[in-house]
């Protein structure tokens, strides 16, 4: 298993390298640059700016400079937020996104799994239809509708929770709800589908035939097998949710890193784009690896030799 | 369902209540301000936008500063003399201190200004000091000896500034945030990190205590500020509020005392229910459509430009689309500038029906009819409001038989297209930097480079605008600039649409909020009603 883990980790390095190279050159092909503003920067001042950020060098040289910095953990300065380096901004924002995302995914998992299993056991009953219907709603209604509705109802009309801001535990409630709703929906649907399939499979029939109590059949055998698709869904889903959401962060004024993904490319903040892309890439690779390892724990057919 | 929810949320609500209680228990007054976006920097030399300026005016104070109503008043300079030729300014600095207790001296200004023009600083606004002797050569690297800059510390309390040419707007320009003083000790001790809490040393009414990017910027009263006993509010917290709808909700929920803006889709509600809290006053800005004069047929044919300008029903646009009391624009320089008379296009006094008839006649005269329509492409940057306006103007032009297509581009792409003059008609807007018509008029000088995206070139206009710089009689100077704008409006390289208004929601508990055309409201001048 350790051998497998190390081999996969080794395979991640060329993947990351390709991500870095592709995104470095792709962002440079976008029209416009970091210093384009409505107020045109005079040519001599633009030259000073380009020089200060080494943008006057040939592209290949900039690329090598960037790679060199990366090896020393230096993501470069942000062109937009001039008082901070990219590493500083990620280091300041990531804990917030991580905490928020972890809570949301935990809530989503517990509710989603329960709903999914329940719906599968009561297939084609009112319970099933309600759970499936609610899930569809969770997937269909986007975040930018859910979040403002939540703040309107709970922040403004009822006045129970703060509309925005960050710092107190009460600030977590609405963003967590908004973040986990679509996840609950996805997890519940996946669980229901695979649970129904597992319940009809041979090993469940065998277990039932030999007189195993239904509760044990479900919890010990069926759920374990039914979780496999959920686990492979969770790998990338967790990576996504713990790196924050631009919509949720802007609406609730949360200091996470989600908004940097969108803002930095709109701003042509080259170093920031690279920073978050590399960071996200590494995280996705890592989460997928963990999901694959979990497979071995859950599925006796999978062995890592 | 409602009861169940209430039970579910009760613990969270109780926790929030406790926190709120803990806050009010301290007797300090805190002002919560929406600031639009996260400040890009707190370094005056590197800032470019309004959110940065708002924060910097709390942290630093220049030689001159703003009164609540926007007048130029003494700041660090207690008084000053101007030589008869208008070239030498001698500033006498008051006894004042930095937040670390060191005295603020004339040397600090010399250091800050040399730093601003130094190409190594790479400041966007380094040209703000171009009126000073050698400033322009220094920032362009034609001169490398920074001591040659026209600013000299005669002694700790006397700063002598030498201008290359008379600049009647100079005292107002000294309030711009790019020329605010920075602390040499702090900047040299932490070259990359001096703007962080703990490192930042300022001379303003407030000092930086906490900064969580994308969440909040907290500043507390600076006990070393020379006017500290007049500063009423103990703490001010700026929030980046990019989502206008949510900012408005936070204001209504009492989480913010002042908003940066007010969403136009809430205007009806505001006017009906919260009119007394809505600060809706003229702002030094113009929203306009710029015409690319290097492209035909609009470039050479004045009649066509006039027809397009005539057909825009400005009253309808401001009353139905923008809805925040904006003023229909018939001028380039907005109203509200002291000593400058508001100019207007010839057709200002015609009614819209007559304008439309004239527009159709002008088009017909040049052979354009609904059968053989004039084709125009409108470019705008992606935004709901710009789109609404573009669609409305498209239909107004359709009514005179012009076939307009609209194209939207993402912000940076749009900027490139505009500055490279690859458009026919583009939406644009300009907000003045300082209270003088030149902050608008210099944009369309023939040598203004990419900024003059109309490609406007009228030697007579250039002569008047440039000539005004050396005119020492303020009244005569304003007359010259008014004349220049008249020529400009006759030539119609732009179609003025509306003049901006400020759209702040301000808590009724707050006092000291006064109208000023540059829209700076420093916390040191505000207080809460007891």
Give the number of DSSP strands of chain B.
Answer: 20
CATH topology of the domain at 283-500 in chain B: Dipeptide-binding Protein, domain 3
Rounded to the nearest angstrom, the radius of gyration of chain B is 25 Å
Tell me the name of the CATH class of the domain at 283-500 in chain B: Alpha Beta
Number of strands of chain A: 0
The low-confidence parts of chain A are none
**Main sheet makeup of chain A:** none
Task: State the helical fraction of chain B.
Answer: 25-40%
Please describe the biggest sheet of chain B, giving its number of strands, its sense, and whether it closes into a barrel.
6 strands, mixed
Shape of chain B: globular
Structural class of chain B: alpha+beta
Greatest contact pair? Answer: A-B, 60 and 58 residues
Helix % of chain A is: over 70%
- What is the radius of gyration of chain A? 24 Å
Q: Compute the separation of the termini of chain A in Å.
A: 7 Å
Number of helices of chain B: 16
> In percent, how much strand structure appears in the residues of chain A?
under 5%
Oligomer: heterodimer
Count the DSSP helices of chain A: 12
How would you describe this structure to a colleague?
- The complex is a heterodimer of chains A (305) and B (530).
- Chain A contains 12 helices and no strands.
- With 305 residues, chain A is mainly α.
- Chain B has 530 residues and is α+β, with helices and mostly antiparallel strands.
- Chain B has a 6-stranded mixed beta sheet. In chain B, strands 1-10-9-8 form a 4-stranded mixed beta sheet, with helices on one face.
């Amino acid at each position: 298993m350790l051998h497998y883990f190390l081999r996969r980790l080794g395979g991640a390095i060329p993947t990351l390298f390709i991500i870095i190279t592709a995104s470095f050159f792709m962002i440079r092909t976008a029209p416009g640059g970091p210093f384009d503003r409505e107020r045109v920067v005079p040519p001599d001042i633009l030259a000073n700016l380009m020089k200060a950020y080494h943008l006057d060098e040939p592209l290949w040289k900039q690329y090598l400079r960037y790679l060199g910095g990366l090896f020393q953990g230096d993501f470069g300065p942000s062109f937009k937020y001039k008082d901070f380096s990219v590493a500083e901004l990620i280091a300041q924002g990531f804990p917030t996104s991580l905490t928020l995302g972890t809570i949301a995914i935990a809530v989503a998992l517990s509710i989603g799994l329960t709903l999914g299993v329940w719906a599968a056991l009561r297939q084609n009953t009112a319970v099933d239809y309600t759970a499936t219907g609610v899930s569809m709603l969770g997937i269909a209604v986007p975040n930018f509708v859910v979040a403002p509705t939540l703040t309107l109802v709970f922040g403004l009309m009822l006045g129970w929770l703060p509309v925005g801001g960050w710092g107190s535990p009460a600030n977590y409630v609405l963003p967590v709800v908004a973040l986990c709703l679509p996840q609950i929906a996805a997890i519940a649907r996946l669980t229901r589908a695979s649970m129904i399939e597992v319940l009809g499979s041979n090993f469940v029939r065998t277990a039932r035939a030999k007189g195993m109590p239904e509760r044990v059949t479900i919890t010990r055998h069926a759920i374990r097998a039914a979780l496999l698709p959920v686990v492979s869904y969770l790998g990338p889903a967790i990576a996504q949710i713990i790196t924050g959401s631009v919509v949720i962060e802007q609406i609730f004024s949360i200091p996470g890193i989600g908004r940097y993904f969108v803002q930095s490319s709109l701003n042509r903040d080259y170093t920031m784009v690279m920073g978050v892309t590399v960071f996200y890439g590494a995280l996705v690779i890592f989460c997928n690896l963990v999901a694959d390892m979990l497979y071995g724990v859950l599925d006796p057919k999978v062995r890592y030799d | 369902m409602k009861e169940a929810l209430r039970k579910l949320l009760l613990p969270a609500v109780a926790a929030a209540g406790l926190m709120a209680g803990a806050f009010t228990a301290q007797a300090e007054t805190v002002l919560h301000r929406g600031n639009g976006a996260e400040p890009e920097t707190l370094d005056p030399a590197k800032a470019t936008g309004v959110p940065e300026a708002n924060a910097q005016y709390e942290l630093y104070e220049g030689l001159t500063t703003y009164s609540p109503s926007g007048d130029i008043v003494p700041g660090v300079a207690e008084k000053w003399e101007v030589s008869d030729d208008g070239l030498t300014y001698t500033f006498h600095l008051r006894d004042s201190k930095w937040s670390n207790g060191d005295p603020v001296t004339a040397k600090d200004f010399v250091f800050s200004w040399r730093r601003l023009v130094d190409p190594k600083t790479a400041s966007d606004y380094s040209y703000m000091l171009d009126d000073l002797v050698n400033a322009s050569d220094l920032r362009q690297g034609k001169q490398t000896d920074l001591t040659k800059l026209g600013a000299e510390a005669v002694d700790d309390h006397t700063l002598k500034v030498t201008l290359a040419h008379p600049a009647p707007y100079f005292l107002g320009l000294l309030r711009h945030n790019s020329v605010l003083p920075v602390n040499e000790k702090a900047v040299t001790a932490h070259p990359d990190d001096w703007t962080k809490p703990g490192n930042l040393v300022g001379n303003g009414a407030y000092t930086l205590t906490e900064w969580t990017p994308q969440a909040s910027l907290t500043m507390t009263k600076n006990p070393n500020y020379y006017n500290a006993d007049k500063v009423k509010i103990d703490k001010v917290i700026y929030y980046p509020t990019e989502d206008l709808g949510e900012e408005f909700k936070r204001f209504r929920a009492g989480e913010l005392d002042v908003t940066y803006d007010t969403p136009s889709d809430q205007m009806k509600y505001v006017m009906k229910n919260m009119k007394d809290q809505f600060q809706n006053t003229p702002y030094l800005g113009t929203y306009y459509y710029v015409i690319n004069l290097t492209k035909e047929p609009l470039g050479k044919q004045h009649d066509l430009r006039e027809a397009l300008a005539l057909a825009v029903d400005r009253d309808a646009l401001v009353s139905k689309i923008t809805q925040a009391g904006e003023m229909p624009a018939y001028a380039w320089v907005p109203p509200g500038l002291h000593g400058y008379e508001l100019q207007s296009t010839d057709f200002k006094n015609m009614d819209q029906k007559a304008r439309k008839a004239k527009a159709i006649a002008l088009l017909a005269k040049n052979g354009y009819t609904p059968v053989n329509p004039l084709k125009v492409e409108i470019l705008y940057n992606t935004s709901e409001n710009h789109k609404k306006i573009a669609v409305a103007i498209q239909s107004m032009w359709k009514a005179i038989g012009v076939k307009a297509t609209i194209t939207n581009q993402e912000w940076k792409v749009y900027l490139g297209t505009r500055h490279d003059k690859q458009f026919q008609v583009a939406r644009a807007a300009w907000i003045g930097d300082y209270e003088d018509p030149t902050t608008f008029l210099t944009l369309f000088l023939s040598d203004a480079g990419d900024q003059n995206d109309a490609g406007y070139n009228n030697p007579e206009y250039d002569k008047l605008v440039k000539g005004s710089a050396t005119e020492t009689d303020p009244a005569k100077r304003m007359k010259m600039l008014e004349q220049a704008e008249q020529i400009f409006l006759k030539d119609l390289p732009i179609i003025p649409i509306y003049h901006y208004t400020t759209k702040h929601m301000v808590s009724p508990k707050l006092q000291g909020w006064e109208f000023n055309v540059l829209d700076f409201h420093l916390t040191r001048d505000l207080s809460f009603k007891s």
